[in-house]
Amino acid sequence: xxxxxxxxxxxxxxxxxxxxxxxxxxxxxxxxxxxxxxxxxxxxxxxxxxxxxxxxxxxxxxxxxxxxxxxxxxxxxxxxxxxxxxxxxxxxxxxxxxxxxxxxxxxxxxxxxxxxxxxxxxxxxxxxxxxxxxxxxxxxxxxxxxxxxxxxxxxxxxxxxxxxxxxxxxxxxxxxxxxxxxxxxxxxxxxxxxxxxxxxxxxxxxxxxxxxxxxxxxxxxxxxxxxxxxxxxxxxxxxxxxxxxxxxxxxxxxxxxxxxxxxxxxxxxxxxxxxxxxxxxxxxxxxxxxxxxxxxxxxxxxxxxxxxxxxxxxxxxxxxxxxxxxxxxxxxxxxxxxxxxxxxxxxxxxxxxxxxxxxxxxxxxxxxxxxxxxxxxxxxxxxxxxxxxxxxxxxxxxxxxxxxxxxxxxxxxxxxxxxxxxxxxxxxxxxxxxxxxxxxxxxxxxxxxxxxxxxxxxxxxxxxxxxxxxxxxxxxxxxxxxxxxxxxxx
Length: 490
Ligand code: NAP
Ligand code: MG
Hints:
Layout: H1 9-14, E1 20-22, E2 25-27, E3 34-39, E4 44-50, H2 54-73, H3 76-92, H4 94-105, H5 109-129, E5 136-139, E6 146-153, E7 156-160, H6 168-180, E8 184-187, H7 193-206, E9 213-215, H8 221-230, E10 234-240, H9 243-254, E11 259-263, E12 268-272, H10 278-290, E13 300-306, H11 307-322, H12 342-358, E14 361-364, E15 379-382, E16 399-405, H13 408-416, E17 420-421, E18 423-427, H14 431-440, E19 445-448, E20 463-464, E21 467-468, H15 473-478, E22 481-488
Parallel strand pairs: 7-8, 7-10, 8-9, 10-11, 12-13, 12-18, 13-16, 15-16, 18-19
Antiparallel strand pairs: 1-2, 3-4, 5-6, 6-22, 11-21, 14-15, 17-20
Bound molecules: NADP nicotinamide-adenine-dinucleotide phosphate (NAP) and magnesium ion.
């Protein structure tokens, strides 16, 4: 027996604006085009929102440029207080935002509530950081000159976000940009524009002046984002999404030498040593793999387990995975919602089929259930051969391949054998080993006896082809500034 929580989903959907948000006004697309938003649990269209044209995108850039001088000059304390009000409004509307997230993304209500809290925290954190943009004073080595540095807003920023955390990826960019004194144009993912529109409405209510935040949802992503990046008034591109699209945008940004922050794909290894606490490692594996149904850039993609603990770990992990119940994310007792769309589900199914053909053993799951919605069973694969495609590619679904190792060095080498470097996880009872392995892993973040690393106060980002720059923490605000050096002699 399942039961839908209040408030009713229809009321929540009805309250979300459907237009583009440009220069403080809600407007239709220049050519009337729309994006149909699909609930991945029902495969039904739940809303249609405006799909921006190139001209709409450029109008948003124009508005952001006009709003920039006054916003950059506004006292940081006032900018911070607007962000603080946005945090409070998000918190007050947490349940509505969570339901919206469930309906357009497919995640469970538990995950969605977690995302709302995480997303709102970026507004609170950057409300506090807005007043902490420091400069430096230094005596030059020759003893005469003084070296002064100051941080100024970089200018108009284009923000491009993915569908997997539609609220948090937006606030993780808007928060620091606004705190630093920049104005923005946000292009959310076409799968999940409603969350971004709901955030724009909240920022409007919080007192963000017209033109400071603009939202241009669009199915014509390449054309609209490309034209905005080509516009010399745009000085920052902050992108979160696939490495494939990130490469295209880095090339595009070269034309106008736009500063880029790139949060791209991952292929996180999860290492479990013989000396690990088994229960803690399984708990960590569940969250690292199954947060957001596996649709996270930080999702554990490959499990390397030492021979002495491999059987116990795999059995306990598979038991937990097979106990998860599948269904629409806002129904009570559901642990795993659908994937975002049919292509994602089919990609996961193809990766599992490939692994099975190369000789992997299916411990649990391994199929898409016969039902409406883009569901896939929680799956654990054992004895996965090194040539299986899912060890190299981002799975982005509820599938856990397990590989056994004997030596620490072998595990580290396998973990680092990827073009990605977002996050790695290590479970061990030996602190020295934990720190040694953390240093040796080539990734921007390490979860040491932790299955989740995301924290608005910490610098989030990757090495290698997982990206450039950091989001969150103080560093996240510096991404939206330019450092100016003033040479003087007093
Ligand atoms: P995606 O296909 O790269 O799309 C990301 C965003 O880029 C969407 O808004 C998309 O718009 C837009 N886009 C697509 N093609 C474009 C183009 N040619 N020019 C400009 N913009 C374009 O990624 P996704 O499938 O939404 O998200 C999953 C990926 O995001 C995964 O690889 C995941 O690892 C990564 N991710 C990384 C992080 C991180 O912090 N490192 C966090 C979350 C997700 P449309 O929706 O209209 O196509
Ligand atoms: Mg959808």
